[in-house]
Design a protein that fits this description.
Elements (H helix, E strand, L loop, with lengths): L3 E7 L9 H10 L2 E7 L6 H10 L4 E6 L1 H9 L7 E6 L5 H5 L6 H10 L1 E10 L2 E3 L2 E5 H7 L3 H7 L3 H10 L5 E6 L3 E7 L1 E5 L22 E6 L4 H17 L8 E6 L1 E7 L3 E4 L2 E5 L2 E14 L25 E4 L2
Parallel strand pairs: 1-2, 1-3, 3-4
Antiparallel strand pairs: 5-6, 5-16, 7-10, 7-14, 8-9, 8-13, 9-17, 10-11, 11-12, 13-16, 14-15
Length: 325
């Protein structure tokens, strides 16, 4: 039996990589005919993945955080080459959403025994987006959390920064354009998600954020005080766990294939956990563009496509909706 040809893309700087990185090639050699590519300052994960694909790897394994996974995915979109994930970052939200275990042993089992599925991806300001794009509170919290704190404390590092941001929330005016309408309102956070785990609460306006429905899910949050923000966050978490759409007036949502977002004043943009300049932001869904290795569906099913629920926008402050001709 011919061994499967696989490539391992290592990011030594990922959040909790530590000594685990050094042992990965040896642990995978028994299952694959393996070639190892290590990212450097001059050669990023996307370039390594492109080289691996050209060299004939049928499985390209991203060992790192969400940024590394997204970069590797950018070289595989629209191809038959499958993405594998070994979560070594801070949040590992892509792996979490797809049901890939956080422990290396479990994640490696998925590479060997899992199954490939087609999931949606997106293009955000010219970048590949697998997870989500954000502006406002989420983007500022992640962008302002020091790398050394993330490496030391993991996801907990975001809590301290987030609490500081909650103490001084600064609403902004936002305009969102879809295929058929323009929406104006005031917000403190805007998230456009292709996929997102329940813990990414600012993306959880709709009942389900599915990576297989061919749509992007927009969530707008307009909380302006600490108390309001905490109450809103708890509501978003509860409805996400229950698989229900959000009900609070200060949260709105809709689904669309393409979104164009501007903000006044301009806001920092986060794409798949990486800082990506400032608004404006253009995001377009790429349905079924990425093949990824996940646990077998009878064991860990993917989030289902969302039920047909109308967009909820009423209640957002300064709301204006204009139909496009």
């Amino acid at each position: 039996m011919t061994e499967r040809r696989a490539a391992l893309i290592l990011n030594p700087a990922a959040g909790h990589a530590g000594d685990a990185v050094a042992s990965l090639p040896a642990r995978l050699q028994g299952a694959f005919a393996l070639t190892v590519y290590e990212t450097t300052e001059d050669r990023g994960a996307a370039a390594c993945a492109e080289a691996a694909r050209r060299d004939g790897a049928s499985l390209v394994i991203a060992a790192g955080g969400d940024g590394t996974v997204s970069s590797v995915a950018s070289a595989l979109l629209g191809t038959d080459t499958c993405l594998g994930i070994l979560p070594l970052g801070t949040a590992n939200s892509i792996a979490h959403t797809l049901g890939i275990p956080s422990g290396l042993d479990g994640a490696m089992d998925v590479l060997v025994q899992g199954e490939p599925v087609q999931v949606d991806a997106a293009r955000a300001n010219g970048r590949t987006m697998v997870l989500l794009a954000a502006l406002g509170l989420h983007a500022d919290t992640v962008g302002e959390t020091p790398q050394d704190a993330k490496q030391r404390w993991g996801v907990l590092a975001y809590i301290g920064t987030g609490l500081k941001k909650l103490m001084s929330l600064e609403p902004f005016q936002v305009e969102i354009e879809t295929e058929d309408q323009r929406i104006h309102c005031r917000a403190t956070a805007v998230t456009i998600a292709n996929m997102a785990p329940a813990r990414t609460i600012l993306a959880q306006g709709p009942a389900v954020v599915s990576p297989t429905d061919g749509q992007l899910d927009l969530t707008i949050v307009s909380a302006t005080t600490l108390v309001e923000a905490v109450a809103t966050g708890l509501h978003l978490l509860r409805t996400a766990i229950d698989g229900e759409p959000v009900e609070r007036d200060n949260v709105g949502f809709l689904a669309a294939r393409k979104l164009f977002v501007t903000a006044d004043p301009p806001q920092h943009v986060l794409i798949d956990g990486e800082e990506a300049g400032t608004t404006p932001l253009v995001v377009e869904c790429l349905p079924g563009a990425l093949k990824v290795m996940v646990p077998r569906r009878e064991e860990v099913p993917l989030p289902p496509p969302a039920p047909e629920v109308e967009a909820k926008l009423e209640g957002l402050p300064d709301l204006e909706i204009e139909a496009k001709a």
